Amino acid sequence: MTRPGAGPDLAVGGFVLLLALLAFWQTSVIPASPIYAQVGPKAVPYVVSAGLFALGVGLVASALRGGWSHALEEVREAPPTNWRALGLLLAGLAANLVLIGPLGFSIAASAQFVLVAAAFGSRHLLRDLALALVLTLLVWFLFVEVLGVNIGAGVLEGLVLRALGQEVY
Amino acid sequence: MMDSIAGLQLGFSHALTLGNLGWALLGCFLGTAIGVLPGIGPALTIALLLPITFKVEATGAFILFCGVFYGAMYGGSTTSILLNTPGESGSIITALEGAKMARNGRAGPALATAAIGSFVAGTIGTLGISFLGPVVVDLALKLGPAEYFSLMLLCFVTVSAVLGGSALRGLTSLFFGLLLGLVGIDLQTGQPRMTLGVPELLDGVNVVLVAVALFAVGETLYMAWRHTNAAPQVRQVGSIMMSRQDWRRSIGPWLRGSLLGFPFGVMPAGGTEMPTMLSYYAERKLVKPEHAKEFGTTGAIEGVAGPEAANNAAAAGILVPMLTLGLPTSATAAIMLSAFQSYGINPGPMLFEQQGALVWTLIASLYVANIMLVVLNLPLVGLWARILKIPQPQLYAGILVFATIGTYGISNSVTDLVLLYVIGIIGMFMRRFDFPTAPVVIGMILGPMAEQAMRQALTISEGDWTTFLTRPVSLAILLLAVVALVGPRLYGRLVSRAP
After folding, report:
1. Inter-chain residue contact A128 with B397, CB threshold 8 Å
2. Which of A152 and B319 is assigned the larger pLDDT?
3. Domains of chain A by residue range
4. For all residues of chain B together, what is the average pLDDT?
5. How far apart are CA B139 and CA A98, in angstroms?
6. Taking the model in full, what pTM does it have?
7. What is the pLDDT of residue B87?
8. Which residues in A lie closer than 8 A to residue B189 (C-beta atoms)?
9. CB A120 to CB B188 under 8 A?
10. Rounded (5°) CA angle B322-B327-B328
C-alpha cells in the first residue's frame, strides 16, 4: 500500500531511529557520577533518547501509511535534483576543508567561492576568482582586526600583511 | 507604570548618545540589507556577529543586534513584494497580495504601506514591551525552579508542536536540538556526555555553528539541489507615494495587525506565521465591498498593511518573554540569549533589577531603531531593490564565505568545519522533508536551562518528582502545555468527524 515517494520518508524515520540508538549508547557510557545529586547526569539524556526513539517510530509509522512528502507543495513542484550543482557545491566545501589548514582562510575560501558560484551557474571563472580573493581578504581583515577574532594568517594574509608593513603573527 | 516611564527616561538618556545611535544605525542598515537578501535572516546574521561580544560592551552589542532584528523585518517585506519569494516565514502572507500589487505596477505603494505599517506596529510593540515588561517581571519573580521548568516545557511544546506543518516533525527537530544541547561536560557533575569520545566535543556544540549550519550551509545546499537556471524577476519599484485612498485603506489594517500580532509574540508561541495569517483573513473579511475583488487578483493594499504590521508586532512581542523570563521563542531570540550568556548575563526577571540601565537602553533603542528604519526604508527603497539584483551564484558563494569564517573563527578547528558541513547536510534534508529548523536552535539553548531548572527544583523538593504537579502554578502551566500539544489535534479530529 505504499505510495510512490514514501521510501525517502521511511529513510528519514530510520535515520531518526538510528540517531536515537546512538543517543542511547552514548547515554549508557556516561560514567556514574561520584558526586551525589538528586538527578544524575544520565536522567535527561535517557529522556531525550527515548523521546527521539518514539518520534522515530512515529515517523516510520507515518511513512508506512504513505508518508508526508507527497502532500508538500514544494516537493511536488520541485525541479529534478541538480546533481551538477550539488556536486560542485560539495566539492567547494571539500576544497575549503582540505586547503584551510595548509594555505589559510583566504585561499581556501576563494577556492570554495569559485566552485560554489560555478555550482549556481556562473561562467566567469576568472572574474569570480578575483572577486573571491578581494572579498575573502576583506572579510578576514574585518573579523581579525575589527571583531578581534583570532584566525591565523595564511599564505595570502601573510603576504598582504607584509606588504602593509605589519608583523605577521 | 511609573517604573516604565522612569526606566524609559534612563534608557533614552543612554540610547541617544552618539556611540549608541551609531550602533543602532549600523544595525538597522545591516538588518534591512540581510532582510532583503533572500536566504539569510537575522538569526544567522546575529550568530555571525557574536564575536563582537568580546570587543564591544554589552549595551552597544545589543543595540546592534536589536537593530538587525527589527531591520530584517522591514527588509523582508521588500523581497516578498518585489521578488515574490518571501525571505522569512513572517513575510509569506505579505507576498500573497504584495507581489500581485507589484505585478500591477503598484509596488511603490505596497512597499510604503509595508514600511509605515512596520513602523506603526514596531512602535505599538515597543510600547507594549515598555509597559508589559515590568508587569511580567513582577509575576516572574514569584516563580521558583519548578514553575520555570514547567514554563520551559510549555515553550518546547508551543515552538515545535503548535506551529508548522506537523507536531511529529516539529518535535523531532526540537529533540535533535535537545540532543545537541546535551553534548559536552555536565555542569553539575563534570561528566562528559554524548561526546562520542571526541575531545573537541567536550566543550559542547557551539550554537553559532549550528545556526550557521542550518541557516546558511543547509539552505545553500538545498538551493543547489533544486537549482534551475531560471532567473527570478525583480519588479520595478516606481513611485512610493501612497494616494489618500491608500492611506485610508491602510490605517485600520495597521492598527488591527499590530494589536493582533503583539500578543502572539508575547505568548510563548514564537511564531509570526499565525498572526500574519489571521490578520490576512481578518482584512479579507473586513474589506469594503468595492475593494473586495482586488484580493487575489490585482492585489489589495489591506492584505499587505495588516499582515506586515502583525509580523512586526509579533517580532517585538518575542522580546518580552526573552527579556523578562529568559525564554527564547524564536531562533533569533535564542541566539540573542546566547549573546547575553557570553557576557555572563542571565536574562530573566533579575535582569530588570541588576541590569536596569542595559535593558532600558535596549528598549529605548528599539524606538530609535524604528524611526531610523522608516526613514531608511522609504527614501532608500531603490537602493534595497538594487541589492536584490546581486546574482545568485555570487550571493550564495559569499554567504558561504561568511559561514566559513564565522565557524572557523570559533576555534580554528577543522573538526568544527566538518561538524558544520554534517549538520548543514542534515539541514538540507530537514528543508526537503519539511522539518522546521528553529526548534533545533531553541532546543539547544533552552534544553540545558530546562535541565538545570529541573535539577534545582528536585533538589529543593528533595527528589520528590510530584513537586511539578503539587505546586499549583506549575501544574497549571503543565496542563496548558498538554492542551497545546493535544488540543489542536483533538479539535481537528472532532471537526473531521462531524458531517
Report:
1. yes
2. B319
3. 6-76, 83-163
4. 89
5. 54
6. 0.90
7. 64
8. 33-35, 37, 40-41
9. no
10. 70
Position B498 confidence tier, pLDDT thresholds 50, 70, 90: low
Q: What whole-number distance in Å separates Cα of residue A34 and Cα of residue A44?
A: 18
pLDDT tens per residue, range B439-477: 999 999 999 999 999 999 998 988 888 999 999 999 999
**Distance, in angstroms, between A74 CA and closest chain B CA?**
8
Task: Provide the residue range defining the domain that includes B311.
Answer: 2-497
Residue among B55, B193, B392 minimizing CB distance to A148: B55
For chain A, report the end-to-end CA distance as a whole number of angstroms.
Answer: 65
Distances (CA, A) of B24 to B45, B121, B334, B446: 15, 19, 20, 28
> What is the C-alpha end-to-end distance of chain B, expressed in Å?
51
Q: In this structure, what C-alpha cell is assigned to residue B41?
A: 535572516
The number of domains in chain B is: 1
CB-based contacts of B306: which residues, under 8 Å, 6+ apart?
A: B117, B253, B254, B256, B257, B279, B280, B282, B283
**Helices assigned H by DSSP within B271-330:** 273-286, 289-292, 302-325
pLDDT tens digits, one per residue of B188-204: 888 889 989 888 889 88
**ipTM entry:** 0.92
In this structure, is the dihedral angle defined by the CA atoms of residues B313, B315, B319 and B322, taken in order, positive or negative?
positive
Q: What is the pLDDT of residues B213-255, one digit of tens each?
A: 999 999 999 999 988 877 777 788 878 888 899 999 999 999 9
Rg (CA), chain A: 24
Tell me which H or E stretch contains A159: helix A155-163
Whether the Cβ atoms of residue A27 and residue B443 lie closer than 8 Å to each other: no
